[in-house]
Amino acid sequence: MLSPECLHEFRSAWLPNISDSGLEHLVQLLEKASPLLIHGSFTRAVPQGCLATHIAWNHPCTTHLTHEAGITWLHHVAGLNPATSHVIREWDRCHGNDFEIRAEMLALLREERGRRSKKRTTPERKAELVTV
Description:
The chain has six helices and no strands.
């Protein structure tokens, strides 16, 4: 199970900064238990990368980067120190063997995808006075 610190960081710093395409990409990788989603390093050989790296490869500010993409996205986009990120530490700790953590991450990402989808389909109403 994800720690409270990890959940807080994921919800407050990661989710708001993940692009829609990055969100969809991570959901697909986790659903398929893809070997492209790795633990223990940011990047091995392109296209293998950790959570942050796959997010970065699908973010407009870091899509042009390769090996340093995940670190750059964490630091410059999400505003986190990659060495002390609770999400990265929990992800690396499970080494792909903790299916509960992967399932919990997938559930959080699906929830965010649903929230974004609902937000896009809900029309914004203008606060105007109606005259009769």
